[in-house]
Amino acid sequence: MRKLDKAIVTCAVTGAIHVPTMSPHLPITPDEIVEEAVGAAEAGASIVHLHVRDPENGEPTSDLELFRDVAERVKDRCDAVVQPTTGGAPTMTVEERTAVVPELEPEMASCNMGSINFGLYPILDAFEEFKYEWETEYLEGTRDLIFPNSFESLETILPMFESHGTKPELECYDVGHLYNAKHFVDRGILETPIHIQFVMGIHGGISADHDHLLHLVDTAEKLFGDEFSFSVIGAGRMQMALGTTAVSMGGHARVGLEDSLYIRKGELAESNAQQVEKMVDLTKEVTGREIASPDEVRSFLDLKGQENVAF
Prior knowledge:
The chain is α/β, with parallel strands linked by helices. The chain has a domain at 9-105 and 115-148 and 225-303: TIM Barrel (Alpha-Beta Barrel), CATH 3.20.20.70. It has 11 helices and 14 strands. Strands 5-2-1-12-11-10-9-6 form an 8-stranded parallel beta sheet, sandwiched between helices. A two-stranded antiparallel ribbon has the order 3-4. Helix 7 (175-186) runs parallel beside helix 8. The longest helix is centred in the last third of the chain and has 16 residues, at 272-287. The two termini are 33 Å apart. The model has no long low-confidence stretch (mean pLDDT 98).
């Protein structure tokens, strides 16, 4: 793999998995999302991964005005790489999810490399009542849901990223998604070096186990040699454990309230910054690696810089 002496910490601020009932600390409004993103950057996150929500009820949305408002304000207040999602929510169409790239022309955005079952319905068993009506229907609807990222859609999405100068972070939810990426590299549609985000622990994708992470990295080594770098999401309780393993292996880590609502067993995280601070401390103490600055990340990933985005 490609090595960077320092570790990259990404923070995913709000996401589309958790619903407001699950935590009072989940940012909902644009103001809350901006404050959480800036706080995460100040705590050491060099990349902030952004979703937006309906400010009235917290429902995930692809509203481009909300994306622009949040992205502009985060950019104005910190130098972190602003990384919008093109994953949106699993219930959105591909067109809805990806419209943010031509709209904002960000330095970097997530890009999902394959279709999976995406089951959020087990959350229903953990709560007797929900704060908003949409939450129950949203969660129940994932029982019969495929999160679509077909070869045909990727044939459109990947060239769109390139035409707007946006670096795709390849979200791989299972081993087969690495082979999907190799397919597009071989066809000349996806340029190397690539940056992979292993998404582990989603109900429908690969589980968040250390041995699975080792297998994912080993497979990527076989497919891409020294033409890839990687980061890891450990959804739920494995967030810090897998993040620490990843940085110990020379990779990078993502934390944030999109991926886990907790700071430790049984204790809700009060902010995204709290999780970033913990990951930064673990990285330094366990591995001895320092944390990469946003500009060091830009250089390593060959990003175009804040001055060349459209927000």
